[in-house]
Design goal:
Sec63 N-terminal domain-like fold, 4 domains, alpha/beta, seven-stranded parallel β-sheet, Rossmann fold, 864 residues, single chain
Length: 864
Amino acid sequence: MVQSSDRPSRRLEDLGLDDRLVEMLHEKWGIEELFPPQAEALPPALSGRNVMLTAPTASGKSLVAHLTIAHRLVTDLKGNLALYLVPLKALANEKLEELREIGSAVGLRVGLAVGDKGGETSMIEESDILVCTSEKLDSILRTRSELMDRVGIVISDEFHLLDNPDRGPTLEIVLSRLRHNRPDVQIIALSATVGNASEVSGWLDAELVTSDWRPIALHYGTITEGVSSDVELNVHRVDGPGDESLPEARSIESKNPKNPLNSILQDTVSSGGQLLVFVSTRASTKKEARELSQHSREMVTEGGYGLGPEDAENWDRLADSILRKEDSPQTVKSLAESLRGGVAFHHAGLTPKHRNLVENAFRRGDLLCVVATPTLAQGVNLPSRTVVIRDCKRWDASQGRTSPLPIREVLQMMGRAGRPKYDDVGESWILVKERLPSSPYSSEKLVERYLQGEVEEVSSKLSDLGANSAEEDIHLLSHVLSMIATGGIGDRHALGNFFSKTFLANQLGSESLVVRIDEAVSWLVNNGMIERLGESDEVASRIIEQGPIEEEEDWGDDLPSWVDSASQVTGILDVGAKPEVWRYADSPRKGSPIFGFQKASIREPYEPDLPESPSMEYKATTFGRRVSQLYINPVSGQIIRDGLRRAMSILTGDDEFGQISPLSPLHLVSSTPSLRPLRLRKNEEEWMEEKLREHGREFLVQRDSSPEDKGGRMKVALVLKSWIEEKHLEVIEDEWGVQPGDLHGLVDSAERMLYATRRILAEDEELFSRDKNAHRTLIDAIDESHRRMRNGCKADLLGLVSLRGVGRVRARQMVKILGVVNASDVAALTERDMQKLSDLRGWSPQLVDGLVATAGHAVRRGSR
């Protein structure tokens, strides 16, 4: 398959691929020969060896994965399953389409698993190739571990995110789990440059292929203000398909020396290209997008830049398409404003729908420029002719100051320049703002750091090395539980053996790893999630038979979701506390212990126990198994159970001071590390303290944390309360400063946690036995909160929003105009009633007919 010369063949026909694949690549994708990195990586990959390929963006890494999957699944791995792991849902959809094209050529079925939709679950069994996020795969393996028996190949895209504190731990654990259970599974890791690639590939037992080859030359340089206010562009590095030399410095005339981005936009658009600008904050994306948009409209008026009136008309249509409602949030209005100049901003404050709109419009060439925060560069395929890094530093809350961006992150952003099939060259520029040579952000220092420096090493984030207790080491705690509850590991020796093969073990001393695992086990035992069954003679015999772990395997050689949890979690007050600890006011409550719905002990500070015996056996409790299967972290599970115990104490009269309201479950889930606290604005701090005192009776848990944390979590609860009270997105953003994308994430996490709360409560035999009626009342209350969160509505709409096609806006219109409250009412609508609805904005006769038919079907189904 490989030529006899030192260079591997670049001919597709020399790889031994199925003829159907070669034909498809030629005819549909226009690929005549391989890129050098592909030619080097494919022979070992096709032969079944593990491969770690590190190469720049657009160098064809994905094709190595695609061809390996297709080739092996139709030859030596027939009937096996291939997993394609990606960090982001947006990237998953992109890979899904690519794999479906190549899979269809050889009869392979491709499925997607990135969320909780029921349709995706059925696709798992039917698929030969499954595209999923690490978090979704981890969740699947906890409930359907038999899936591993089918896995033959695993592709890990954007593998350098192993270093990411949120996503890295889950990626590391699923790869470790697959390798532990399927030692022969093939792993293909695709990554940008990694500083310690040899160490990482060694952990994977993978052949390392590294390359800086690019199909399109990329000029890396700096932008500075020159003489006469011109903008000077100096290239300091060139990567490309050959030995390209550094071009001469050039200047661009600048009409506004305070904003050189206008000049860069002109220069890029005049040559038929598009521009990506990366800034450090969301506010900066809006500001720069607005100013560039205004400038591009001027460019249309002036003419001479390849732009005409038809471009402005197209931009206006795009802007109007996102302003269909008068109550559009301010963030959406700002986006529409910038779109009118062919410019958009992109950050996590936008909803997924609006981010997709921006990405697709840019790919189509309908936009001249996108101004984004660095998150855009993490996996989303959005190439452009030119990239500008405006900010090379950002605020670091942990250090209380600004810090330079990591080298890898800057190179990821710069690597977006150069559009395959469109550009002969790409240009990536770092904007220099400081001239003093001593400044770390001077031109010389920026070039030295980002264009000539060594990329950072990747390190394991499976354990938080700064954690002071097991409760703070939240990722390790979660995965120790999952391995005992759902991973088939039942003793300390097996547990240690598993974790000794993680990347964490490569970087943590054996004694430290042992202590951390023991601490996690003790925490889980003390909090009722696992139980010790005693030392096992059988396990002891097995340990003796296996002998000591070989030196090379010794521990000494060594993120809908808790993946996005804060790195540290402080203690809480539990159910068994004495009543006076929970005095929310100076006098007992007056009135019912629960209101507002339509229808627990103080833990001692954790101290490590003695080292666990290697032969100690474990078993997950019902509670621990449920926490793991619900895919919530153990600390969140314990907080929820403590809160439920407090709620039952209130309902049974044991607690005479507390009171349960719709805010109670919202504050409960907001108190978990699965939801991050919101930052308080200066004008909110004093007001939030008043709210904390005002609603104290309604809290089911109290966090032993800072005032900022308490206030930030209270703000989360109040924002969620605004959502379920049907406040418009515009009002929520105006009142709370929470942008639509952030609200979307909060609601999604809160809905998932409320669902988990109901499941934990329903299966708690102890609480059920205390008082069956109180237990049922509390289940109904939590269920109502969950349904209201899912639909963003008040309780009186729950009978309508359950109908397909009816959201909270339409449901409220139906209540106001027709007085209907449930499916039976809708099914009984008269022709006159249906006409009233059809005449409303956003409705149609077809929609009303379908709604009435759906309601009738629901009524008949319910009467069976």
